[in-house]
Specification:
Length: 117
Amino acid sequence: MFRSGSYRRGVAAMHGGRRTTHPTIDAPHTHTHNPRHTLLMKRYADPVEVLLSRGSPRRVRWAERIYQVQEILDFWIYQSRWWSSEERRIYFRLRTNRGTIEIWRSGEQWVLAGVED
């Protein structure tokens, strides 16, 4: 189940209004279909530290590197099989001073999902 910002609505419009699977969740290495440009994301599952401002990510620290968020490109919520107590994840695609990254949050834990190649 997806709830999303403008990116998911744009993708649905490009596919005749039908829902599609999300490329970054369904395949480990894939090209995303971002209307702004096409990215190849390298997948990770590393914990990160995130500084928030008004509930939105402003700075991400990963592997001794600081990523200053310049723009939130997209966000979506992924939750499946609520009856089997799987977790709810809130994903963010961010444009930073070091390139595009994806992070997700579950509870208070933040995880790096991918880095643009």
